[in-house]
Predict the 3D structure of the following.
Amino acid sequence: MINNFIEEKLQKVLDNLKINSEAKVITSNRKDLCDYQFDGAFAQAKVLHRNPFEISEEIANEFNKLYEKEQLFSKVEAVKPGFVNFTLSDKFINQMLEEMAHNEKFNISFPKKETIIIDYGGPNIAKPLHVGHLRSAIVGESIKRILKYFGHNVIGDVHLGDYGLQIGQVIYGLKEQNIPKEKITIELLDEIYPKMSGLCKEDPIVKEECAKITKELQEGNKEYQEYFKIIREISGNDILRIYKYLDVNFDLWYGESDAYPYIPKAKKDLEEKNLLKDSEGAKIVDVSKETDEQELPPFLFEKSNGAYLYGTTDLATIYQRMEDYHPDKILYVTDLRQGMHFKQVFRVCEKLGFTDHTSFEHLGFGTVNGSDGKPYKTRLGTAPKLDELFKETKEAFLSSNPKNNGMDEEDLDILVNAIIKFADLQNNREKDYIFDIKKFSEVVGKTGPYILYTYLRIASILQKEAKKVDTLHETIYNDVDRNLRIKLLELDNTLSYSYTTRLPSILANYLYELCVNLNAFYENNHINNLEDINKKEDWLFLLDLSCKIIKEMLYLLGIRIPKKM
Ligand code: ARG
C-alpha cells in the first residue's frame, strides 16, 4: 500500500528529527501539485512555538537525504504554509502497477482469518418485503463479499422474522375465513396480512386473539404449527425468488423460530448469573452503565404473559451461533433505528461473557426516501412491492435508452440490478437517500449503467487486441495517463478502507472515479492505429488492469455484467 509505504519511510525521518508526530499521509486531490501530503508540521509548530514551514523543510530535507538514491519520488518538497508534498516517480508508479497486475488480489494485505457471521436481509414471512429489506440485502451482500475477499470464513444468515405477531394475525385471518391449508397461496398471504394488521389496529379484541395465537404457536400448538409450516414454506419461496433475482445468496435460512430451542439455555445462564430481574411480572436484564450518556432501558427477556420478544430471539440466536460456529464476529445489517435494540442485546452478551471471544457490530443503514423526503412509495402510492420496483426500474431504463442495443431479458434484469444496487451502494450506508429511478437509470452520471457501459467499452477494445502485455515501459505519456495510473494505485488502500469501515460506498465511489479517469484517458489517448509500439503496449496494460479491477469491484458490490448494452 503506497500510503503505508511512504508512512514507514516518513516515520523514520520523524524519529531521526525527534519529531513526535504520527507519520500519516493523505492522498492529494490536486494531482498537479503532488500525490500525497503530510500536514503534521502544523501541530508540531503549535507545540514547539515554531514556524510550521521551517519544520516541514527539515522533514523534506531529511527525507531526501535518506531516500533520494532510491528514486521512488520525483519530488519531495516543503510548501508553504507547512506541508510536505510527495510526488511519485514514474519508475516507482510503474513498478507498483506491475506488482499489482501480477497479484491475484491486487496486492491487498490480508488480516488474520476469522469466522464471521453476517446477519442481513431479515425479511418477515407473510409480510411483503419492502425497500428497507432491499437495502439490508444489497448492503449486506456487498459487505459479505468484501469480507470474503479479505480471506475470512463468512457465513450469511437471512434471519427470517418468522415468529412474530404477523404470523398470529395471518393464522387468525385464515381461520376466520375458513381457508383450508391447501388453498394458501402467496397472493392470498399478500392480501391477508395488511387486512389483519389493519383490523388489529381497530379492534383490541382481535389484537389480543392474534397475540394469543402467536404465543400458543411459539409454545408448540399443533394446529398453528401446521399453518406456520405452510406459511413459512410459501412465503419463504417467494422471498427466495426475490433474492435470487437480486443475486443475494444466504448460507443459512434460519429464522427466529429456529432460535426457540435455545431460549431455556439462555434463561438458565441469565438466572445463574443473577442477571434476570422481575419487573411487574416481566423478566428484564438491566443493561445500563454509569458511563452511559443516555440511559439505556432494560433488555426485555420475557413479557408478563410469558411471551418472548425480538430481543429474546436475538439472544437465543447468538447461543445457536456460538454452538454451531464459534464465530469471532457477528455483524448485523439492519435499519439504523434498531441501534438501541442491538446495544441492549450486545450488553447482555457482555454480561454473559460472549464478548470475551466474539465481537458484535451493528451496521446500520438509513432510509430510502422519495423526492418528498418521506419513505419511498411507488407510482401506486403504496409501499413498493419489490416486483413493482423492479418493473418500474426496467421501464425507466428503457425509456431513457430506447435504443437499448437489443439487450435480451437476462441483460435487462442485470441492468435493473445494477441500477438499484449502484444507486444504493454509492451512498454511505448510514445516510438516507432519495430514490430517483430516472436519474439512476441514465448512462451518464454516477450510475450503474455508466459503470457497466465504461466496462463494456474498454472490454471490447481489449478484445480486438490479440496481445497480452504484462510489463510497462518507463515512460508516462501525459496527464490523463498519469492520473489513471495513480488512480489504479489507490485501489488497495480503498479496498482496505471499505473493509475496515464496512462501507461498500467507498468502493462504489472509487469505481466511479476510476471510470471517469478511464473515459478521460480513452478520449485523449486512442489506442487503435497507434504507431508507437511501446506506448500501445503500455496503454493496453493499463486498460487491461482497469478492466480486471472494474470486474472485481462490481462483483464485490454484487453487480453482474451484461453481455452487451
Ligand atoms: N426482521 C427484522 C425486521 O424486519 C430484521 C431482522 C434483523 N436481524 C436480527 N438479527 N435482528 O426489522
